[in-house]
């Protein structure tokens, strides 16, 4: 039996800055996961990934990451993706610092 | 220190110019990421979890104050004011922008530095003993040979597209401080029975998924045969090495699959073929290089100031006992600057700290600095009378931690705080262990102990050869830490034994604590180190301490 599709977001790193970005529903890239498009359908997910892969002059290494619907928007399920929303744990650098 | 000639200078500038054009073409869209990636990797530029990372080569870990100051300048101008010294004697900047990297490479070239071959499937930065040129137990300074190998391997046309990365280390003492047997090829400078200096060659060592201790390929090869021998080893590997499976592509697997004797035979054939093409220019070059690695102009002065401070100041005494090593000149010492203050990130130094170390080296250290694979900074030549002043300056900069070789002198790779390949974090585990044992005030009582932590099976943190090794894994979506015991990265290299099931993130520090208490209980006396005790009693008492539940179950 095929496994049930779990919701996804499209994520990548920005070409110039190298920081983490997510694809929004209106084809923009956001630096805040809250604004990402939560994709609930497998076929749609593949399509969105294709859109991202068509923008390789702006982004590097797009992929589909598991996510769930959270209070403010899509939220990560795996700790790696959670770290990507925040930055390193040894310094207050990266997204956690930019959000202030 | 080696000084670039016109050829080196032109080569580095040309590489930087090329990379600047490549970056422009990537941004304009003329190059895809697939095309650009190998180009940026050839220049040490990675894309990590949160940002790009530039890995800068510090050949055999040697720096002077000019270079160190420039590393500080780059950290301030293009990064977040710090750098991370790695287990391969390199420095990494964690936050550069793609558009800044060509300028960073130019700034490096200004002080005869570069990021070439710090990534990709080529011969990587050649590493060496961080006490080279200073330690009394060396046959000779190993760095000229390391520099010769660096020049030979730089842009070597045959070896730019190997099956996998290739790491070479050079040492010159029986006591191995350069983890020789964990390298693809290691060169140990030795003397034969006739008193001639030559090389012992190890092959096929490596950590990672399949940890293997390097084996002796040649007990002794004469001086003039070094490059043709190493080249023949590389050629055989390049042809024979597997390219179908990344995990089987290192030379250790080539040697394992074909057997050492078969490998040696093939290398012998290749050697016979290429030997006539070496006409001695390599030896002349080595002689030239050697001129740059002369002994410093030693100071002839009283060491009394050291003795006075040592007797009067217990804080200085503690640092001196822990962080100093004997020098070949009895009036001198080798001083290790710990960049692992309790709770700090192992291997990180701020730009201010870099400048302090540069100033101290210039004023008191014959302008020499070394980076160790254990992620500390070394002042290889300090006259003993200057040590109290050096110590005072280090104290002011937060660099006077007396923990070299102790439980908080932990090797930790960047792990999932930075590295895109990581399966778990390693830095916070190191920070917590160091903080905990500092609180317990047990560090000095525990004595010599090497903890090494990797954030994935690639083992950049050398966990297999840690007396206590910690490997961070992803077990069903949570961080999990596996402990290995009894590893050793010295001349008696041993791969650590797995202790049992892993521990969750919040269980790993208490587990290490239980392990240490078990050691303190069972050691014969204070002289018996953790490793010696482990070798005497084996795994089981430590296992019992790590898994008390299992014991209870057994008893029930
Ligand atoms: S051991 Fe793994 S996590 Fe650590 S630096 Fe190496 S590749 Fe990254």
From TrEMBL, chain A:
InterPro entries: DUF2849 (IPR021270). It comes from the Bacteria. This is Sulfite reductase. It comes from Actibacterium pelagium.
UniProtKB/TrEMBL annotation, chain B:
Residues 119-271, 409-546 form the Nitrite/sulphite reductase 4Fe-4S domain. The keyword Metal-binding applies. The keyword Oxidoreductase applies. It comes from the Bacteria. GO terms for molecular function: 4 iron, 4 sulfur cluster binding; heme binding; metal ion binding; oxidoreductase activity. InterPro entries: NIR_SIR_4Fe-4S, NiRdtase/SiRdtase_haem-b_fer, Nit/Sulf_reduc_fer-like_dom_sf, NO2/SO3_Rdtase_4Fe4S_dom, NO2/SO3_Rdtase_4Fe4S_sf. Keywords: 4Fe-4S, Heme, Iron, Iron-sulfur, Metal-binding, Oxidoreductase. Residues 52-110, 346-396 form the Nitrite/Sulfite reductase ferredoxin-like domain. PANTHER family: BLR3264 PROTEIN, FERREDOXIN--NITRITE REDUCTASE, CHLOROPLASTIC. This is Sulfite reductase. It comes from Actibacterium pelagium.
